[in-house]
Amino acid sequence: MYELKSVGNRSDDYDDCDSTRESKILDMEEGESIKKGDIYTKKVSISSSNFFVGNNKSTSNGEKKMKQISDSKTFKRKVTTKDIVNCPKEYHANFISMFLFIIGSAFFRFPILYVAGCIIFAIASAMCLYSNLISAMYVKNKKKKEFYGFLCYIAGCAIFILGSVYCCFKDDYFAVITFILGSFYFLVGAIFFLYNFNLRNIKGVKYQIVIVYMSNLFGGLIFTVASIMFFYEHLYNYACYLYVGGSILFTLGTWFDYIIHVRNTF
């Protein structure tokens, strides 16, 4: 808005003719000021009404920069132990289950600990199923692709529970098939999540989110390959090592899930 300057009374310094001439000049100046004000008002009105995208270019860029600064501050927030503890239960269940997968996978390597590893795997799968079930219910009507991804995770966990319990009593082809199917569902679930990526705007995606998606993708891929290797006795030890590596990737993904949740919530 233009600021109108006050005009002093000059009738004491000028005669009537001069006064009349002065008033005409003032009227003309006021007219030009009002005209300019009208033009300015119209421009503001058009810009605020968003009739022309070009008129909002600077405003849009400013808003984008402000949003980027805000997002940057949010994702640079320091995460404390208290923040992690205050996360929802499903986050804790998911993280603990992935850590148990590491232990169970390591136990598979030693015959004396094999059954214990199967039990640990069953417990971890049950906790993972609970976590993904809660998450699926949350995004059911919001994000379809993520919902389908969680459904695949749930199916994979359920098959893992079946296979882990079965392996406590028998070690045959059916046991291996259950682990292949479970791992395959994990892989497909991760692929569903990848569909959320806009490759044209990949630079705008926070690196924490990329780490979560990539950890789940490669973790599922490694699990699938390792499960197939269980068919070959001479590759059994290598398969166990791959399971440990895949579990570590899953654990890494769940840790960054914590970070993302904290920085977006608290």
What is the strand and helix layout of this fold?
Elements: H1 16-49, H2 57-75, H3 81-85, H4 89-108, H5 114-139, H6 144-167, H7 173-194, H8 207-229, H9 236-265
Helix pairs in contact: 4-5, 4-9, 5-6, 6-7, 7-8, 8-9
Q: What would you note in describing this structure?
A:
The protein is 76% helix and 0% strand. The protein has 9 helices and no strands. The protein has helices at residues 16-49, 57-75, 81-85, 89-108, 114-139, 144-167, 173-194, 207-229, 236-265. Helix 4 packs antiparallel against helix 9 (236-265). The longest helix has 34 residues, at 16-49. It is globular, with a radius of gyration of 33 Å. Residues 1-29, 32-60 and 64-75 have low confidence and may be disordered.
Short description:
The protein has 266 residues and is mainly alpha-helical.
List keywords for this structure.
266 residues; mainly alpha; 9 helices; 76% helix; disordered N terminus
Could you report the average pLDDT, rounded to the nearest whole number? 77
Percent helix: over 70%
| Cα Rg | 33 Å
In DSSP terms, counting alpha (H) and pi (I) runs of 4 or more, how many helices? Answer: 9
Calculate the terminal CA-CA distance, rounded to whole Å.
40 Å
Structural class estimated from helices and strands: mainly alpha
The largest sheet, given as strand count, sense and whether it forms a barrel, is: none
Low-confidence stretches: 1-29, 32-60, 64-75
Give the topology string: H per helix, E per strand.
HHHHHHHHH
What's the overall geometry?
globular
Work out the number of β strands: 0
Count the domains. Answer: 2
Strand content: under 5%
